[in-house]
Amino acid sequence: MIPRYSRPEMVSIWSAETRFAIWFEIEAHATSKLAELGVVPKESAENIWKVMNARKAEHGDYGFDVARIDEIERTTKHDVIAFLTHLSELVGPDARFVHQGMTSSDILDTTLSVQMARAADLLIADIDALLAALKRRAYEHKDTITIGRSHGIHAEPTTFGVKLAEAYAEFSRNRARLVAARAEIATCAISGAIGSFANIDPQVEEYVAEKLGLSIEPVSTQVIPRDRHAMFFATLGVVASSVERVAVEIRHLQRTEVLEAEEFFSPGQKGSSAMPHKRNPVLTENLTGLARLVRGMVTPALENVALWHERDISHSSVERMIGPDATVTLDFALGRLTGVIDKLVVYPENMRKNLDLLGGLHNSQRMLLALTQAGYSREDSYAAVQRNAMKVWEMRGDRAGQFAQNLKEDPQVTLSDAQIDAMFDDAYHLKHVDTIFARVFGTGKD
Amino acid sequence: MIPRYSRPEMVSIWSAETRFAIWFEIEAHATSKLAELGVVPKESAENIWKVMNARKAEHGDYGFDVARIDEIERTTKHDVIAFLTHLSELVGPDARFVHQGMTSSDILDTTLSVQMARAADLLIADIDALLAALKRRAYEHKDTITIGRSHGIHAEPTTFGVKLAEAYAEFSRNRARLVAARAEIATCAISGAIGSFANIDPQVEEYVAEKLGLSIEPVSTQVIPRDRHAMFFATLGVVASSVERVAVEIRHLQRTEVLEAEEFFSPGQKGSSAMPHKRNPVLTENLTGLARLVRGMVTPALENVALWHERDISHSSVERMIGPDATVTLDFALGRLTGVIDKLVVYPENMRKNLDLLGGLHNSQRMLLALTQAGYSREDSYAAVQRNAMKVWEMRGDRAGQFAQNLKEDPQVTLSDAQIDAMFDDAYHLKHVDTIFARVFGTGKD
Amino acid sequence: MIPRYSRPEMVSIWSAETRFAIWFEIEAHATSKLAELGVVPKESAENIWKVMNARKAEHGDYGFDVARIDEIERTTKHDVIAFLTHLSELVGPDARFVHQGMTSSDILDTTLSVQMARAADLLIADIDALLAALKRRAYEHKDTITIGRSHGIHAEPTTFGVKLAEAYAEFSRNRARLVAARAEIATCAISGAIGSFANIDPQVEEYVAEKLGLSIEPVSTQVIPRDRHAMFFATLGVVASSVERVAVEIRHLQRTEVLEAEEFFSPGQKGSSAMPHKRNPVLTENLTGLARLVRGMVTPALENVALWHERDISHSSVERMIGPDATVTLDFALGRLTGVIDKLVVYPENMRKNLDLLGGLHNSQRMLLALTQAGYSREDSYAAVQRNAMKVWEMRGDRAGQFAQNLKEDPQVTLSDAQIDAMFDDAYHLKHVDTIFARVFGTGKD
Amino acid sequence: MIPRYSRPEMVSIWSAETRFAIWFEIEAHATSKLAELGVVPKESAENIWKVMNARKAEHGDYGFDVARIDEIERTTKHDVIAFLTHLSELVGPDARFVHQGMTSSDILDTTLSVQMARAADLLIADIDALLAALKRRAYEHKDTITIGRSHGIHAEPTTFGVKLAEAYAEFSRNRARLVAARAEIATCAISGAIGSFANIDPQVEEYVAEKLGLSIEPVSTQVIPRDRHAMFFATLGVVASSVERVAVEIRHLQRTEVLEAEEFFSPGQKGSSAMPHKRNPVLTENLTGLARLVRGMVTPALENVALWHERDISHSSVERMIGPDATVTLDFALGRLTGVIDKLVVYPENMRKNLDLLGGLHNSQRMLLALTQAGYSREDSYAAVQRNAMKVWEMRGDRAGQFAQNLKEDPQVTLSDAQIDAMFDDAYHLKHVDTIFARVFGTGKD
């Protein structure tokens, strides 16, 4: 997580202030339930909330003093103990009833769940914004004809709107995956040293889970099992790979020879300090790199699953790094991609120009089918079309209409000129755009 | 995929015979629909099915001649064309109506979907078998007390059944993940060269999808988008990591000094050719390695997502290898793990012996709480317990009852002997085993 | 390892026949040394070689019967014992002196070293062939001017020969890395059950190592330490990534809009069954996928390092798969890349055409420097150049000479027309091509 | 890179101050050479050094004002331009001769080389410290007998010193790898927009390289080729995996049931807030996690190799993160491991106790050989040893001397009691410890 690729809202989820606030709420809810169960005095439990809610009303948050907690931790060498000590400074003697029968992991793991769930919420919102931008631009360019390319080579026409509809469909899937990933990690464990509830009633876990909007972990050890976190980070890796796919598409479209679309380039912007003529797709190149970073965090998360027995702590350093890094980086990437799509400069006339570059070769399949239907064998049809196509391929200079021309001049092709010309209307290729839009957006109309 | 780590049923999904059978069914269903749409003659479409179903009735399968197809491919240099040529050898002239308006990718990608869906079905069945074994052994050892370990160090007691219940819960999650992953890739695309349906009606796709039990791909390019496959392989990586977790647990339990459980060792088996005394956990060590292999296939699948434009073919070589390798390896691993669990030799008496190894230290938390409740400050309580615990820790030889003894002799611990002894009953730690079983299995009873 | 992406020479390194031949040689050399040390009878040691060398003289190899060994293994459940049994069938009673004091791992790990060293030799030879192709084509196109591109956007001119020289330099480095990687794994361990030489004299290891061209492993456990193998596979991952870099370059150059170079397309070849006009860069796309596969094997090899204590066997399944897969795949990829480079069709006229596409903008830096030297501030110079460049950028249609034209017409640019024209000779950009070639190839001349 | 797992010296390599100091030195050396070549005035070049060296003499460093540079960058949106502007504020008008004919990448990439080379130097020094600690402890425990374990199961004896000698040999290899990795990335490129030296003489590159202790990059594009960086990070991944291996060994040795060694536990330390009896191997568990993190950065670095054409900028975000993260994390890990080894508490008596746990079974191979040599067939010998060994294996309670006892009582084992007893002296297993030490340390003596 580096500031250059971070947005404040996601960063704040991982701040010390947020962490302590969640710690407090877990502890205070647990104390409330313990009071209800008769383990600690009711008035103490209530007073803790009263004092801290008053602070919140005043400060906007609970107002923990992070520096003070750090100071105490330097003595106690234990973060949760330092926090509890500071809490008692704020709350007074009632604080001694906090944390009864709980272990540090109960707090730490449940807090991580809350943080990851909140991070997932932001990422889902990011995708919603991206979907909105994709949909808007897709409808804008629903009928903007452009060449479809397989292997980087011209194939047959499609529309730029359909390209964006593909991205929309892909990110709709990613949204659903993130919702599932969120559910994976939104669990609460307050079950003690090895998950046996020896020193705390399972009802406390149930109560805290409900208060925090989590489900209970059916069986925990000292920790929430790490297959959940692995699935979460694996999902982020898939989403990042989709970001890369769209980024690579735009980088291709902006290539000098293609230039069908371009990242927005503001007046006064400099593409290169040395070469004043440059406008580079630096945002999408950056997204490509960010995707690599997020993907690189998947395997460490998978390696974290096989903790020893009821837990070891090897996962902890991994999560301290990839928890913030993966979510902050992906959040930034999704935001950046949304901006790119939103402001993407599209050049329909270049799309048209490129489409015509090969002198009509994008209709080679139609011509093949026409010849077959006219009674030629598949082999002869293929040979005739390929022969005339390759002549165009190898031409230099203006090829406009050249494929049709060649076919008309080929003595072995006995279709009439009119029949040949009929193979070159673009509408043929676009007749199902409405169908596709209806499948993706629910309707072909905006 | 190597024979040593393969099972025939999963291997057969990836055989040439299976592939050609799926190819045929896609083609034949598509032809049926094209007949219905009036594009090809109805009797031809019907005859194709008639001839081939007759072969199937006779041979048990459609009886494609793989060697013959290979021979044709050496001439045509195109696998789908070779297949179609062979099909016409079997079916006669009606075969010329097959593949009308379709492209090779329509067949290839939809076939991959069918294969991956079938592979997922096998994996789900594998997990069901594993869950059954885990559940049986979990109930068998529901009350078999054993020490819980954090950091490899004795913590507090749990039961061996609870350990297995954890594995059960984890694989229940993995089952749900595989069901979701199956849905990800069970889609059908018959949409032509760049997904525009220019030469084939979308109704054909819908018809074939329904016949094959797939959903339609809302918007494809030439290919089904690879975020789907990425999600599938990422899920296999998570499942493999869970396999590793259980395998590592068993490897630990079989260590000479621990020996609480052991892989089944058959009479006549040799653990080592050089050292006749050995019984090694080779199956679970092998599972650890297989997990690494499956995990290693996740990143290539993620890298496959960002194909260029409407497709490039870089994903193909990756999938030719990891498609079979990941599914065959994981299938084998799940089967092997089920066998290990099923026949695992458990040593409750060693569990008991190990539990007592530290002379009662596993009750240090209880003692801490007891002192706190007796009015000692948390700091004093901790110091008293730690002081007496460390004396036991550093003892050599028999420590039975030593922790309680030390506490009784400590002048600063004013609890009565009876109060101290009361802290050492095991039932305290196991009182919520029923709760945990009810959460995991729906009921605490078998 | 699948036949489609395999070459026989590398495959044969991993065959059962090769493995057994190496096993035999290790065993027989060890027996020779044991005879010298007086542990076994000299005549027996000599006779073993005599019998087997006679077989070799007759059969071309030692003629082990793999099926027979498999058959024995089905009874003994131990591969090395099965081999030794078969050996005694071939050699007679003297065979009982083979394998004295050795353990299976001594044979297996040293054999893996021999196989990996041989694989490295093939890969180094592959790179030598690739380097030769790159050098030949580099000199052929030493002066073929082409636009250099940063961010996919035209920057300044270079030559196609320089591009190939870059690839040459990169693969020279890869060659050196492979030589180092070969040295990493070319070690011999014959040290017994946990590496203590309890039952075999270290001199045996030294002798066998020398005979096999290996170094001794200074300290082994039961196995050769896996950091060596990790380094080997990591190196293959780097080489594969370089293969991808060159492959991606060619894929870019073959794009329809660029078409500066093209994979060789043979007469009669079909680029697409549906679209007869297509010529796709399928070989380099395939190389991109193969690179992903090899890279995916790096992490499992790294995870293999942390074996437990003196060894566990988790690495074995990983190496059974990635040993052959990584070397066979990379060997195939290097061979394919060499073929692509060798037969690459280069279009200098298209390079020229593309170079001029932006109407001279590739001299924007020169113009910027010229204005600065003429006394304009850097800011004013930049603004003037960018202003006139962007006008060209946004033009459609023929831009020939347009950048110079704009500058001449700009009243704020007071350079003379002659001064401006002088900024547009290409030789300026190519003046150090000889220097670069001299650095890379040792000389600027062929 | 998070403070918790960072050491200041490595962090400072990646600070803004260090970066600007390297930028300055590259620029100033280049200007010196340009002055020598007559491109810029000699007195200006000299004055720049004079002014800045004076600042350095005064401040200890060049005293760049990072905040001021950031402020300028907010206007110029370009980091190198902001730096140059600030430099001119410090140096005055002579600064206008800086950066003549150079591009930003010349500075940025060469700076990264310097930073990575310095990072490598620190890592090499870290390994030297680790090697020293390993050697000291290895000699200390050269004769401390301990059981060697394969598969986690007792095999045959070795010494704890030999275990440490293995680690020493492994890290000696890692040192050599880091030296090679350093050479990979210690190159200098000052070659302009696409590496053609169009606007700057290659002699400048040569001069700057020499001054900075780098080699020249034989052929660069706009950037230094990323196969170099890939190799660097791959090497860090191997070193991290070796760290994990040693860490896992220690975690195993500290397990409650084994307890042959223990991380140092200071008086006053708390292993667990809830369970006062705990002493956990938290440092080595942490090292396991840190290894996962460093390994996870290898693949992104490999993916960075295939930049498009003469460069795209996708690698940049990756390196901004993994450059500092991988080196800082590995530096911290090596330091922590050195501390662990240095202060490791070793329990020879527990090693002895564990060695005897199986009642002498660790001599089963010797017994097998003895029986064979006494004329028993290999099969009968194996059966006899296994039969008597398994009886011990399945015993509970004290097994001291039990294996020998069983053998003596076995009527089918006709060796005398004396012959059997002779198989149980430990010296047999340790007779080559000196050989091993001589191989690893150059001498068997301290």
TrEMBL record, chains A, B, C, D:
Annotated catalysed reactions: (2S)-2-[5-amino-1-(5-phospho-beta-D-ribosyl)imidazole-4-carboxamido]succinate = 5-amino-1-(5-phospho-beta-D-ribosyl)imidazole-4-carboxamide + fumarate; N(6)-(1,2-dicarboxyethyl)-AMP = fumarate + AMP
EC number annotated for this UniProt entry: 4.3.2.2
Alphabetized Gene3D superfamilies for the sequence: Fumarase/aspartase (C-terminal domain), Fumarase/aspartase (Central domain), Fumarase/aspartase (N-terminal domain)
Gene Ontology BP terms: 'de novo' AMP biosynthetic process
Alphabetically ordered keywords of this record: Lyase, Purine biosynthesis
InterPro entries the UniProt entry points to: AdenyloSucc_lyase_C (IPR019468), Fumarase/histidase_N (IPR024083), Fumarate_lyase_CS (IPR020557), Fumarate_lyase_fam (IPR000362), Fumarate_lyase_N (IPR022761), L-Aspartase-like (IPR008948), Pur_lyase (IPR004769)
Start and end residues of each Adenylosuccinate lyase C-terminal domain: 359-441
One term of GO molecular function: (S)-2-(5-amino-1-(5-phospho-D-ribosyl)imidazole-4-carboxamido) succinate lyase (fumarate-forming) activity
GO cellular component, one term: cytosol
Protein's UniProt keywords contain Lyase: yes
The protein's annotated pathway: Purine metabolism; AMP biosynthesis via de novo pathway; AMP from IMP: step 2/2; Purine metabolism; IMP biosynthesis via de novo pathway; 5-amino-1-(5-phospho-D-ribosyl)imidazole-4-carboxamide from 5-amino-1-(5-phospho-D-ribosyl)imidazole-4-carboxylate: step 2/2
Pfam family, one: ADSL_C
SMART domains, A to Z: ADSL_C
Enzyme class: lyase
UniProt family annotation: Belongs to the lyase 1 family. Adenylosuccinate lyase subfamily.
Stated name of the protein: Adenylosuccinate lyase
Lineage: Bacteria, Pseudomonadati, Pseudomonadota, Alphaproteobacteria, Hyphomicrobiales
